[in-house]
# Entry
Amino acid sequence: MKKLIAGNWKMHTTLAEARELARGIVQGLGEAPRPEVAVAPPYTALAAVADVLAGTPVHLAAQDVFWEEKGAFTGAISPLMLVDVGCRLVIVGHSERRQHFGETDATVNRKVKAALKAGLAPIVCVGETLAQREEGRTLAVVERQIREGLAELPADAGARLVIAYEPVWAIGTGRTATPAQAQEVHAFIRTLLPGVLGTARVRILYGGSVTPDNAAALLAEPDIDGALVGGASLMAASFLAIIAAA
Ligand code: PGA
# Structure
């Protein structure tokens, strides 16, 4: 399986900064990067970054999506709008959406279905909080998120869908899961997938304080198929170093 390195820019970058960052990535990448590469700028910069990425191997992704196609949903962005602006992928259920914006496994499921219907590849995020890990509930929490978030998808969903395991305690904290900790959860997720998606051949990314220093060790694990990178994706040099490690 080809690895996927995706940059989640979160609520960062003005238009000028977004164009510059995208240009830096494209210029540093060369024509045939070994892994697949995607960047997820904020909504306001999608069109500008799409222009920079046109004709390059870097895919455009969005950070969230609503499930309706159109209508009176002030502030929301539909899957069709994301396809229209050039997105191939969309992050769904990031822990920050769950924490600050009331995202639940049920809303994740509706968004995943809508994204797939529009032809987008959802990157579905799961992961436990520190309290849940300390209580020994990591696998139970992740299993619930996978079973409910990915319930009743079309039979071919596994071909496009991507999962990102992001322990909440590792996001933006500088505290990365060890390769062994991540591998344990990735392997567990893999065992669930035949029952949930009808196939285990689904990319499972790791996310949470991935840096150029720890990327190679994480990506060497057998069930880690790429990385979802936050902070270190905001500078072309560090994002490119992580891509080079894949
Ligand atoms: P981080 O973010 O790399 O800054 O920890 C990862 C993410 O939230 O996807």
In short: The mean pLDDT is 97. The longest strand covers residues 87-92. The domain at 4-245 is CATH 3.20.20.70 (TIM Barrel).
